[in-house]
Design goal:
This protein has helices spanning 22-38, 42-59, 63-69, 74-87, 103-129, 132-142, 153-183, 193-224, 243-265, 269-281, and strands spanning 92-96, 99-102. By secondary structure, it is mainly alpha-helical. The relative contact order is 0.16.
Protein backbone atom coordinates (compact mmCIF):
# COMPACT_ATOMS: atom_id res chain seq x y z
CA UNK A 1 0.00 0.00 0.00
CA UNK A 2 2.84 2.39 0.81
CA UNK A 3 4.31 1.85 -2.62
CA UNK A 4 1.04 3.05 -4.13
CA UNK A 5 1.54 6.58 -2.79
CA UNK A 6 2.56 8.68 -5.79
CA UNK A 7 3.12 11.98 -3.96
CA UNK A 8 6.71 13.09 -4.43
CA UNK A 9 7.49 10.38 -6.99
CA UNK A 10 8.78 11.03 -10.49
CA UNK A 11 7.44 8.96 -13.37
CA UNK A 12 10.05 8.78 -16.11
CA UNK A 13 8.61 9.23 -19.60
CA UNK A 14 9.25 11.17 -22.80
CA UNK A 15 6.31 13.55 -23.13
CA UNK A 16 5.70 17.20 -23.88
CA UNK A 17 4.55 17.74 -20.28
CA UNK A 18 7.84 16.35 -18.96
CA UNK A 19 9.76 18.75 -21.21
CA UNK A 20 7.85 21.87 -20.13
CA UNK A 21 9.61 24.51 -18.08
CA UNK A 22 9.06 23.76 -14.36
CA UNK A 23 7.98 27.36 -13.77
CA UNK A 24 5.14 26.93 -16.26
CA UNK A 25 4.05 23.68 -14.59
CA UNK A 26 4.14 25.16 -11.09
CA UNK A 27 2.22 28.29 -12.12
CA UNK A 28 -0.23 26.20 -14.16
CA UNK A 29 -0.86 23.83 -11.24
CA UNK A 30 -1.56 26.74 -8.88
CA UNK A 31 -3.90 28.37 -11.42
CA UNK A 32 -5.74 25.05 -11.91
CA UNK A 33 -6.13 24.55 -8.16
CA UNK A 34 -7.51 28.07 -7.76
CA UNK A 35 -9.97 27.53 -10.61
CA UNK A 36 -11.47 24.57 -8.73
CA UNK A 37 -12.47 26.81 -5.82
CA UNK A 38 -13.53 29.97 -7.65
CA UNK A 39 -16.73 28.68 -9.27
CA UNK A 40 -19.16 25.93 -8.36
CA UNK A 41 -21.28 24.68 -11.25
CA UNK A 42 -21.43 21.67 -13.56
CA UNK A 43 -19.95 23.38 -16.63
CA UNK A 44 -16.82 24.50 -14.73
CA UNK A 45 -16.26 21.03 -13.31
CA UNK A 46 -16.74 19.45 -16.74
CA UNK A 47 -14.15 21.85 -18.16
CA UNK A 48 -11.76 21.04 -15.30
CA UNK A 49 -12.14 17.31 -15.94
CA UNK A 50 -11.55 17.69 -19.69
CA UNK A 51 -8.52 19.94 -19.10
CA UNK A 52 -6.94 17.56 -16.57
CA UNK A 53 -7.70 14.54 -18.77
CA UNK A 54 -5.94 16.21 -21.69
CA UNK A 55 -2.89 16.98 -19.54
CA UNK A 56 -2.72 13.41 -18.21
CA UNK A 57 -2.99 12.06 -21.75
CA UNK A 58 -0.16 14.30 -22.95
CA UNK A 59 2.00 13.38 -19.93
CA UNK A 60 1.93 9.65 -20.84
CA UNK A 61 1.45 8.78 -17.16
CA UNK A 62 -0.87 5.74 -16.89
CA UNK A 63 -4.24 6.62 -15.40
CA UNK A 64 -4.18 3.40 -13.36
CA UNK A 65 -0.91 4.52 -11.80
CA UNK A 66 -2.47 7.83 -10.71
CA UNK A 67 -5.69 6.24 -9.44
CA UNK A 68 -3.66 3.73 -7.46
CA UNK A 69 -2.05 6.65 -5.67
CA UNK A 70 -5.52 7.88 -4.65
CA UNK A 71 -5.94 4.92 -2.29
CA UNK A 72 -4.12 6.81 0.44
CA UNK A 73 -6.75 9.60 0.50
CA UNK A 74 -9.91 7.48 0.19
CA UNK A 75 -10.61 7.89 3.91
CA UNK A 76 -10.36 11.68 3.60
CA UNK A 77 -12.76 11.65 0.64
CA UNK A 78 -15.28 9.51 2.53
CA UNK A 79 -15.19 11.78 5.59
CA UNK A 80 -15.66 14.85 3.39
CA UNK A 81 -18.64 13.34 1.56
CA UNK A 82 -20.31 12.24 4.82
CA UNK A 83 -19.77 15.66 6.38
CA UNK A 84 -21.39 17.46 3.42
CA UNK A 85 -24.31 15.01 3.12
CA UNK A 86 -25.38 15.09 6.78
CA UNK A 87 -24.37 18.58 7.90
CA UNK A 88 -25.55 20.79 5.03
CA UNK A 89 -28.71 22.84 5.51
CA UNK A 90 -31.44 23.00 2.87
CA UNK A 91 -34.47 21.10 1.64
CA UNK A 92 -34.84 17.88 3.63
CA UNK A 93 -35.01 14.51 1.86
CA UNK A 94 -34.59 12.07 4.78
CA UNK A 95 -34.33 12.73 8.50
CA UNK A 96 -33.45 10.16 11.15
CA UNK A 97 -32.26 10.70 14.72
CA UNK A 98 -30.00 13.80 14.65
CA UNK A 99 -29.01 13.39 10.99
CA UNK A 100 -30.66 15.14 8.06
CA UNK A 101 -30.00 14.52 4.36
CA UNK A 102 -30.76 17.48 2.10
CA UNK A 103 -30.74 18.10 -1.64
CA UNK A 104 -28.10 20.78 -1.19
CA UNK A 105 -26.01 18.41 0.92
CA UNK A 106 -25.95 15.78 -1.81
CA UNK A 107 -25.00 18.36 -4.45
CA UNK A 108 -22.26 19.80 -2.21
CA UNK A 109 -20.94 16.29 -1.45
CA UNK A 110 -20.70 15.43 -5.15
CA UNK A 111 -18.99 18.72 -5.98
CA UNK A 112 -16.56 18.42 -3.05
CA UNK A 113 -15.71 14.83 -4.01
CA UNK A 114 -14.80 15.81 -7.57
CA UNK A 115 -13.04 18.95 -6.34
CA UNK A 116 -10.71 16.99 -4.05
CA UNK A 117 -10.16 14.29 -6.68
CA UNK A 118 -9.19 16.86 -9.30
CA UNK A 119 -7.10 18.80 -6.79
CA UNK A 120 -5.02 15.77 -5.78
CA UNK A 121 -4.65 14.40 -9.30
CA UNK A 122 -3.77 17.83 -10.69
CA UNK A 123 -0.99 18.33 -8.15
CA UNK A 124 0.20 14.75 -8.71
CA UNK A 125 0.73 15.44 -12.41
CA UNK A 126 3.25 18.14 -11.52
CA UNK A 127 5.29 15.93 -9.18
CA UNK A 128 5.07 12.92 -11.51
CA UNK A 129 6.40 14.87 -14.49
CA UNK A 130 8.96 17.10 -12.72
CA UNK A 131 12.13 16.00 -10.95
CA UNK A 132 12.89 17.40 -7.47
CA UNK A 133 15.80 19.39 -8.90
CA UNK A 134 13.54 21.00 -11.49
CA UNK A 135 10.96 21.80 -8.83
CA UNK A 136 13.63 23.45 -6.70
CA UNK A 137 14.89 25.58 -9.59
CA UNK A 138 11.36 26.53 -10.64
CA UNK A 139 10.24 27.48 -7.13
CA UNK A 140 13.38 29.50 -6.53
CA UNK A 141 12.95 31.36 -9.81
CA UNK A 142 9.27 32.14 -9.14
CA UNK A 143 9.96 33.31 -5.58
CA UNK A 144 12.99 35.39 -6.52
CA UNK A 145 11.12 38.75 -6.15
CA UNK A 146 10.70 37.93 -2.45
CA UNK A 147 14.42 38.50 -1.96
CA UNK A 148 13.59 42.21 -1.81
CA UNK A 149 11.93 41.50 1.55
CA UNK A 150 14.95 39.50 2.79
CA UNK A 151 13.15 36.17 2.36
CA UNK A 152 15.62 33.21 2.12
CA UNK A 153 14.24 32.01 -1.19
CA UNK A 154 16.98 29.51 -2.03
CA UNK A 155 16.88 27.92 1.42
CA UNK A 156 13.09 27.55 1.26
CA UNK A 157 13.25 25.95 -2.19
CA UNK A 158 16.01 23.62 -1.00
CA UNK A 159 13.93 22.51 2.00
CA UNK A 160 10.97 21.74 -0.27
CA UNK A 161 13.19 19.75 -2.61
CA UNK A 162 14.69 17.74 0.25
CA UNK A 163 11.21 17.05 1.66
CA UNK A 164 10.02 15.75 -1.72
CA UNK A 165 13.12 13.58 -2.05
CA UNK A 166 12.61 12.13 1.43
CA UNK A 167 8.98 11.10 0.86
CA UNK A 168 9.68 8.01 -1.32
CA UNK A 169 12.74 7.18 0.80
CA UNK A 170 10.72 7.20 4.02
CA UNK A 171 7.94 5.21 2.36
CA UNK A 172 10.44 2.54 1.37
CA UNK A 173 11.96 2.60 4.87
CA UNK A 174 8.49 2.22 6.43
CA UNK A 175 7.74 -0.74 4.16
CA UNK A 176 10.96 -2.46 5.23
CA UNK A 177 10.24 -1.88 8.93
CA UNK A 178 6.68 -3.20 8.56
CA UNK A 179 7.90 -6.36 6.85
CA UNK A 180 10.50 -6.85 9.58
CA UNK A 181 7.84 -6.45 12.30
CA UNK A 182 5.49 -8.85 10.50
CA UNK A 183 8.31 -11.40 10.31
CA UNK A 184 8.65 -11.06 14.10
CA UNK A 185 4.94 -11.84 14.58
CA UNK A 186 3.38 -8.36 14.60
CA UNK A 187 -0.28 -8.26 13.55
CA UNK A 188 -0.60 -5.45 11.00
CA UNK A 189 -3.81 -6.70 9.39
CA UNK A 190 -6.00 -6.72 12.49
CA UNK A 191 -9.41 -5.10 11.87
CA UNK A 192 -9.50 -3.62 15.37
CA UNK A 193 -8.50 0.05 14.98
CA UNK A 194 -7.00 0.35 18.48
CA UNK A 195 -4.82 -2.72 18.00
CA UNK A 196 -3.59 -1.42 14.63
CA UNK A 197 -2.72 1.96 16.16
CA UNK A 198 -0.90 0.21 19.02
CA UNK A 199 1.08 -1.87 16.51
CA UNK A 200 2.22 1.32 14.75
CA UNK A 201 4.40 2.33 17.72
CA UNK A 202 7.15 -0.25 16.94
CA UNK A 203 7.18 1.18 13.40
CA UNK A 204 7.25 4.90 14.20
CA UNK A 205 10.17 4.75 16.66
CA UNK A 206 12.73 3.17 14.26
CA UNK A 207 11.31 5.28 11.42
CA UNK A 208 12.00 8.53 13.30
CA UNK A 209 15.46 7.31 14.28
CA UNK A 210 16.21 6.47 10.65
CA UNK A 211 14.87 9.85 9.47
CA UNK A 212 17.03 11.79 11.95
CA UNK A 213 20.07 9.71 10.99
CA UNK A 214 19.52 10.41 7.29
CA UNK A 215 19.04 14.11 8.03
CA UNK A 216 22.32 14.17 9.99
CA UNK A 217 24.19 12.39 7.19
CA UNK A 218 22.77 14.86 4.66
CA UNK A 219 23.84 17.85 6.80
CA UNK A 220 27.38 16.45 7.12
CA UNK A 221 27.56 15.81 3.35
CA UNK A 222 26.45 19.40 2.60
CA UNK A 223 29.01 20.83 5.04
CA UNK A 224 31.76 18.62 3.59
CA UNK A 225 30.99 20.08 0.15
CA UNK A 226 31.14 23.65 1.55
CA UNK A 227 27.47 24.35 0.89
CA UNK A 228 26.70 27.95 1.88
CA UNK A 229 23.29 28.82 0.40
CA UNK A 230 22.21 30.55 -2.77
CA UNK A 231 24.53 33.55 -2.89
CA UNK A 232 27.08 33.29 -5.70
CA UNK A 233 25.95 29.82 -6.80
CA UNK A 234 25.80 28.97 -10.51
CA UNK A 235 23.57 26.48 -12.34
CA UNK A 236 24.50 23.65 -14.64
CA UNK A 237 21.25 24.13 -16.60
CA UNK A 238 19.78 27.57 -17.15
CA UNK A 239 16.00 27.58 -17.55
CA UNK A 240 14.69 29.19 -20.73
CA UNK A 241 11.14 29.38 -22.03
CA UNK A 242 10.62 27.54 -25.33
CA UNK A 243 7.85 27.56 -27.93
CA UNK A 244 6.10 24.65 -26.21
CA UNK A 245 6.00 26.70 -22.99
CA UNK A 246 4.31 29.58 -24.82
CA UNK A 247 1.76 27.14 -26.28
CA UNK A 248 1.11 25.74 -22.79
CA UNK A 249 0.56 29.26 -21.41
CA UNK A 250 -1.93 30.02 -24.20
CA UNK A 251 -3.75 26.73 -23.56
CA UNK A 252 -3.91 27.47 -19.81
CA UNK A 253 -5.15 31.00 -20.45
CA UNK A 254 -7.88 29.66 -22.74
CA UNK A 255 -8.96 27.20 -20.04
CA UNK A 256 -9.07 29.89 -17.35
CA UNK A 257 -11.00 32.26 -19.63
CA UNK A 258 -13.52 29.54 -20.46
CA UNK A 259 -13.98 28.68 -16.78
CA UNK A 260 -14.51 32.33 -15.84
CA UNK A 261 -17.02 32.79 -18.67
CA UNK A 262 -18.88 29.61 -17.68
CA UNK A 263 -18.85 30.53 -14.02
CA UNK A 264 -20.41 33.92 -14.72
CA UNK A 265 -23.02 32.96 -17.30
CA UNK A 266 -23.98 29.52 -15.93
CA UNK A 267 -23.93 30.33 -12.21
CA UNK A 268 -27.60 29.39 -11.82
CA UNK A 269 -27.13 25.90 -13.26
CA UNK A 270 -26.53 24.31 -9.85
CA UNK A 271 -29.67 25.90 -8.40
CA UNK A 272 -31.61 24.66 -11.42
CA UNK A 273 -30.30 21.13 -10.84
CA UNK A 274 -31.37 21.25 -7.19
CA UNK A 275 -34.82 22.47 -8.24
CA UNK A 276 -35.21 19.64 -10.78
CA UNK A 277 -34.14 17.06 -8.18
CA UNK A 278 -36.70 18.43 -5.77
CA UNK A 279 -39.45 18.20 -8.37
CA UNK A 280 -38.38 14.69 -9.34
CA UNK A 281 -38.34 13.53 -5.72
CA UNK A 282 -41.74 15.02 -4.92
Amino acid sequence: MLRDITLGQYYRADSVIHRLDPRVKIAGTLAYMISLFVFNNLICYALAIVFLGTIIGLSKVPVKFMLRGMQSVVFLLIITVIYNVFLSSGTTIVKFWVFTITYEGIINAVFMFFRLMLLIMGSSVMTLTTTPNQLTDGLESLMRPLKIFKVPVHEMAMMMSIALRFIPILMEETDKIMKAQIARGADMENKNLFIRVKNLIPILVPLFISAFRRAGDLALAMEARCYHGGEGRTRMRVMKLAVRDAVAIVFLTFYLGTVIFSGIYFKDLTEMLVYLLQKWWT
